[in-house]
Design goal:
Blueprint lengths: L8 H14 L4 H8 L3 H8 L7 H11 L13 H14 L2 H5 L1 H12 L5 H15 L5 H13 L5 H17 L3 H13 L4 H15 L5 H17 L3 H14 L11 H10 L3 H17 L3 H9 L6 H14 L2 H8 L10 H14 L4 H17 L3 H17 L3 H17 L1
Helix pairs in contact: 1-9, 2-3, 5-10, 7-8, 8-10, 9-10, 10-11, 11-12, 12-13, 13-14, 14-15, 15-16, 16-17, 17-18, 18-19, 18-20, 19-20, 20-21, 21-22, 22-23
Length: 413
């Protein structure tokens, strides 16, 4: 799976397309300034035609850049992207994170050249994968790279698609996340690549209604990783299987300590946090509220998902003084996913002692968002709170209709 990184019209065209989208200009807008037809500019961006230095100079004035036609020495750019790509496939996050510094050394060689877009794309990929994927700064660039994936194949194209999946997943837009994984499947053929995609699909499935299906997909990926001797990805699949394969209705038999040790051993920090979250939520579900508070409270409140779970935990404990203080300090640099926004609005209505109809409105919005993305945990929470509200107000018909709505949605899913 290789891509041509040579200095050719295609790479320069993609960079020009990237800059035009970044400046929010249409083909006709730029073509008019350039004194060319929009079809000419489209063919340049598609790599079908070369561009003169005079035209490029005028485009630089439009975009505020200094792109040049001169061929510069790549000095291992292609090989470096291959290395990043392989570390991602192998699940070696330590090595993957270490590529940030190397990328900076390439900046002066590739910025303002034909590889201008590829540099920015790799910078975004590493930024998303090494930090949270739903910061305001990261999400600002998501529409730009979404539009350019169709033109981008090879290792960079695969990494971009997997990064767009991660952004959608962390903002709990699971339909979009699945769509990006489906798009990634279209550009790969190797079983190992497909297994990585399967592992991500299973990750989504564990948070949705079809956990048994997710376990099956996870198992298939695990077998493939064993065949290719991918130790880190195999460990990731094993941990998730152990974490989710048993139903915790009346007791919890998962050996969380061993799973945490395994996550630490294989340097899987994100998976470690997922284990803590799952353990905390299950403790809460089983009524072990002190344990739930201890576990969930250890997670960084700056993360929107953890912030919401901590807020809901205060509500379950009826600790409304702590909940009020908590709601005053929402995550500053993050975009809170829509489903959690509705959940937080419900909690605000509770601490403000709002009227039942106001609380119901927020709960219904929370439920609809959870059903739309097929989120198991949030659907269960919204249903529980609505059931309490309808019981208090003796609205048994509304309770029955709600249950029917949830059942029908799950059956269709």
């Amino acid at each position: 799976m290789h891509e041509d990184y040579a200095m050719n019209p295609s790479t320069l065209g993609t960079s020009l397309h990237f800059l035009r989208i970044l400046k929010a200009k249409s083909l006709r807008d730029v073509a008019e300034i350039l004194g060319r037809s929009h079809t000419f500019l489209a063919r340049v961006e598609n790599g079908e035609l070369s561009i003169s230095q005079d035209d490029l100079t005028r485009l630089n004035q439009v975009y505020g850049t200094s792109l040049r036609l001169a061929v510069s020495h790549n000095d291992g750019w292609h090989e470096w992207i291959e290395a990043v790509y392989q570390d991602f496939l192998n699940g070696d996050l330590n090595a993957f994170y270490g590529h940030q510094a190397t990328l900076q050394s390439y900046a002066q060689r590739v910025l303002n050249g034909p590889l201008h877009f590829q540099y920015h794309a790799m910078h975004w990929v590493l930024c998303v994968m090494t930090r949270s994927a739903n910061t305001v700064r990261v999400l600002k660039m998501e529409p730009v790279f979404s539009k350019l994936t169709e033109k981008t194949r090879g290792p960079l194209g695969f990494l971009l698609r997997m990064t767009l999946f991660r952004v959608a997943y962390r903002t709990w837009q699971l339909k979009s996340a699945n769509a990006w994984l489906d798009d990634a499947v279209k550009i790969v053929a190797h079983p190992h690549l497909k297994a990585v995609i399967q592992l991500q699909k299973a990750e989504i499935g564990f948070h949705r209604y079809n956990r048994q299906g997710a376990l099956k997909v996870n198992k298939e990926a695990h077998q493939t990783f064993g065949f290719f001797n991918n130790v880190l990805r195999r460990a990731e699949a094993e941990i998730r299987s152990e974490l989710y394969k048993k139903r915790q209705l009346k007791s919890d038999e998962v050996d969380y300590a061993s799973l945490k040790d395994k996550a630490k051993t294989f340097l899987l920090p994100n998976l470690y946090d997922e284990i803590v979250v799952t353990e905390g939520l299950r403790a809460q579900h089983l009524g072990f509220l002190d344990r739930a508070t201890h576990l969930l409270g250890r997670l960084p409140a700056a993360h929107p998902q953890y912030y919401f779970y901590q807020a809901m935990n205060y509500h379950v404990r009826a600790d409304y003084h702590a909940l009020t203080d908590h709601l005053k300090t929402p995550p500053k640099d993050y975009v809170i996913p829509v489903v959690f926004q509705h959940g937080l609005e419900f909690l605000k209505a509770v601490v403000e002692a709002s009227q039942p109809d106001v609380i119901e409105r927020h709960l219904l919005a929370y439920l609809d968002a959870a059903l739309d993305q097929q989120l198991y945990g949030e659907t269960r929470w919204a249903q529980l709170e609505l059931s309490k509200l309808y019981e208090q107000t003796r609205r048994y018909k509304a309770a029955t209709q709600m249950v029917e709505k949830i059942t029908n949605t799950i059956m269709q899913a």
